[in-house]
Amino acid sequence: MKICENRVVIITGAGGGLGRAYALAFAAEGAKVVVNDINREAALAVVGEILGQGGSAVANSNDITRYDDAALIVRQAIETFGGLDVVVNNAGICRDRMFASLTEADWDAVVAVHLKGHFCIASHAARYWREQTKGGAQLSARIINTSSGAGLRGSIGQSNYAAAKAGIAALTLVQAAELGRYGITVNALAPAARTGMTEQVFADTMKKPEEGFDYFAPENVAPLVVWLGSQASSAVNGQMFEVEGGKLSIADGWRGGPELDRQGRWAVGEVGQAVEQLMARAVPPAKVYGS
C-alpha cells in the first residue's frame, strides 16, 4: 500500500518549483492533491501531469493571503475529496533589498505571502479538524510549514523574508504544542533547492548540472515532505528539518545559554563586565548568510 493512500493534501504555491515536486510526489504515493497556486494556468498544468500519471488532483487559485479566500481552499478539498488530512504551506515570494532601502510595500508583500499565508489556511484547517474531533473522529492530520535558513540564521538583503521565515519557525512550535491534542502534528522544513525564488539570486550556484546528481533539485526535498504528511510520522511534532541535496538534519531551536545571577539588581556599571563573561562562555551563533 502506498504511504499516503487516499490522504487529502493541500499544497500552496504548487504550480512550480518545490510545490510542484511535492504535488507529484504525494500523488505518486496515493494522495488526492489540491494544487493551489495564484497562477491558475500553472496549477492546471501540474494537475494535468498528475492526472496523466493516473493520480487524483484538482486545481485551485484562491489567494492564501486573504482569510476568506483561504477558507475556500479548505472547502474545495473537503467538497471534492471528502475531507482533509494534510496542509503543506509552501507558497512564497521574494522582494530582496538592503534594509535601509526596503519599502513598506516590499515588507508587507513578503510578510503577507509567507507568514499571513501560513496562518490563513492553517487556521481554517485547524478549525475543521477541531470540529471533527468534537464529533468523535480520531485524526492523523498534518501541517507542514516552510521556513528557511534565512529565518534560522538571517540573510543579508532579506530582512523581510528572514523575519517572515523566523516567524514561521516560532509559529510551528506554538501550533505543535497547541494542536497535538486534536491529533494534528506540525513540523517545518528549511529547504535548499532550486526554485523560481532562488533562481533570482543563486542562478549560477544552483543551476542543474549537465550530468550526475542534481544537488539542488526540488525533488530531493519531496520525500521528507511526503513522509511527514503520512500517518507514519505521528511521533514527530514541532521539529525543524533542514534539507539540502542528500543531507537531512534537524535544527536546534533557541534555548537558554550561559547565565550569571547577581541575586539582586545589576548596577549599570556592572553590566558590561557581566556581558563580556557571558559572551566568552556562549556558543557563537551561525553566521548570517552573506556576511
Text of the CATH class: Alpha Beta
What would you report as the Rg, rounded to the nearest angstrom?
A: 21 Å
Strand content: 5-15%
Low-confidence stretches: none
**CATH architecture field:** 3-Layer(aba) Sandwich
Structural class: alpha/beta
Q: Which whole number gives the mean pLDDT? A: 94
CATH superfamily: NAD(P)-binding Rossmann-like Domain
Would you list the SSEs in sequence order as H and E?
EHEHEHEHEHHEHHEEH
Question: Which strand order spans the largest sheet, edge to edge or round the barrel?
Answer: 3-2-1-4-5-6-7-8
Count of individual helical segments: 9
- Amount of helix: 40-55%
List the domain count as a whole number. Answer: 1
Shape assignment: globular
CATH fold descriptor = Rossmann fold
Give the structure's gist in a few sentences.
By secondary structure, the chain is α/β, with parallel strands linked by helices. The protein has helices spanning 17-28, 40-52, 67-81, 104-134, 149-153, 159-179, 198-201, 222-228, 268-281, and strands at 8-11, 32-36, 56-60, 86-88, 141-146, 184-192, 240-244, 247-250. An 8-stranded mixed sheet has the order 3-2-1-4-5-6-7-8, sandwiched between helices.
Protein described:
By secondary structure, the protein is of the alpha/beta class. The chain has one domain (8-250): NAD(P)-binding Rossmann-like Domain (Rossmann fold, 3-Layer(aba) Sandwich), CATH 3.40.50. It contains nine helices and eight strands. Strands 3-2-1-4-5-6-7-8 form an eight-stranded mixed β-sheet, sandwiched between helices. It is globular, with a radius of gyration of 21 Å. The mean pLDDT is 94.
